[in-house]
Amino acid sequence: MTSISVDAVFCPRCGQPLGPAGIASGEHAVCRRALDLEPPRYCASCRRRMIVQITPSDWTARCIEHGETTESTWGPA
Amino acid sequence: MQPGVDGIRNNRGMTEQVATQPTASPTSPTTPDSAADILTVAREQVLERGERLTYDQILAVLRTSDEQLEELLAIAHEVRMRYQGPDVEVEGIISLKTGGCPEDCHFCAQSGQFTSPVRSVWLNIPELVRAAKLTRDTGASEFCIVAAVRGPDAKLMEQMRAAVAAIKGSVDINVAASLGMLDADQCQDLADMGIHRYNHNLEAGRSYFPNVVTTHTWEERWETCQLVKTTGMELCCGGLVGMGESLEQRAELADQLGELEPHEVPLNFLNPRPGTPFGDLPVMPANDALRCIAAFRLALPRTILRYAGGRELTLGDLGTRDGLLGGINAVIVGNYLTTLGRDPKEDLALLDELKMPIKALSDTF
Ligand code: SF4
Ligand SMILES: [Zn+2]
Ligand SMILES: [Zn+2]
């Protein structure tokens, strides 16, 4: 599951701008649903394509400008 | 919507995909068994005598109605229990080299030929070892290392040698590999490294394959599969369904896999990936996916049949359960190569509820 920050400017799945209401606006609803089963591919701040590594238990996405995010996809034991 | 047993009852008429031209039947040219008696045939031939279904019979299974689905899944489950037992083989998979592949498999987000957002990257060995440990902690007996390549070059073989040694030095788990097409020397090298199972999928039935891949042939894939079998490694070979193939072509894949007799068949349901030629195809209806599971089990009564990619999207939670009670006896835990999977705790709780023990490492030799 990929969480989307409230101050995201670009959609982490398709890279298109999110608009003034951000991810809550209802646009990109398909992307939002898909992100349940996908890591982000675009940096939400600058829309660069990120380098993404997936392991069975987590993913790491790296933007050369905005750094690295890691999220565990396995809940607490 | 999450289909399942209720879905089976309610989704009448939601069956077959639009078929392209039927292909010549690869095996027996007899008239297909009618949908009415194919279940009786399956019981007698597969369950009682342990003989796999023929092409025509597989096709008849794929043509059964939603009303027959519950009974069909029950027969497939009985076949699995009789010839494979209640154990479920659990596996984790990891991408050693992601993206930038020169091939053009139309379903794949890792092809360098499409405008997919997946960027090319290599995973380092400490991360591989960490992932193997976490996978083992779930009870899994298999850890498969995958690379997005046409076939391995010297650099990749060296990486594999180091990776397998590092994993075997600290984690008690079987290591499998999927590195594309192999020559005889590479095949032997991998077996010597201690790779116990090699994955190379047929991907599609022979007649549909040119619609899926143009940069290599089905026959090249078949040859690598045959080569693997000569080295003593177990062969893992499956494919995808829901790529726009006809029911005939779907039956063809199951029949050709039956002829190949791999140790394991991973069954993928197309998860349409943005930017790929199959990115706009519809997700396969759940009941069609369940019919496929049963048909593949009846075509491969003694093979490990694994849920691979796409089950979360195609089947949801209830459908996942139906498949485990309809012929599936292996799962991939956690994430896939470019997409995410379920939390293993959910899968393990489901297996527990279904009284299906995780296959022990000691039972895998
Ligand atoms: S399926 Fe394998 S060979 Fe085909 S494009 Fe993807 S990574 Fe390459
Ligand atoms: Zn979007
Ligand atoms: Zn950025």
Explain this structure:
With 77 residues, chain A is mostly beta strands. Chain A has one domain. Chain A has one helix at 29-34, and strands spanning 51-54, 58-63, 67-72. Chain A has a three-stranded antiparallel beta sheet, with no helix packed on it. By secondary structure, chain B is an alpha/beta fold. Chain B has one domain: Alpha-Beta Barrel (TIM Barrel), CATH 3.20.20.70. Helix content of chain B is 41%, strand content 12%. Chain B has helices at residues 5-10, 35-48, 55-62, 69-83, 125-137, 154-170, 184-193, 218-231, 247-260, 286-299, 311-324, 344-353, and strands at residues 89-98, 121-122, 142-147, 174-178, 197-199, 234-236, 239-241, 264-269, 304-307, 330-332. In chain B, strands 1, 2, 3, 4, 5, 6, 7, 8, 9 and 10 form a ten-stranded mixed beta sheet that branches. In chain B, β8, α10 and β9 form a beta-alpha-beta unit. The longest helix of chain B is centred in the middle third of the chain and has 17 residues, at 154-170. Chain B is globular and about 55 Å long. Chain B starts with a helix and ends in a 12-residue tail after the last helix. Chain A binds chain B through residues 1-2, 13-15, 36-39, 41-42, 49-59, 73-75, 77, and chain B through 92-95, 98, 117-119, 121, 123, 127, 130-131, 134-135, 271, 274, 312-313, 333-341, 343-345. The complex binds iron/sulfur cluster and zinc ion (2 copies). Residues 101, 103, 105, 108, 110-111, 148, 180 of chain B line the site of iron/sulfur cluster.
Which descriptors would you attach to this protein?
heterodimer, A: mainly beta, 3-stranded antiparallel beta sheet, B: 365 residues, TIM Barrel, 10-stranded mixed beta sheet, 12% strand, disordered N terminus, binds zinc ion
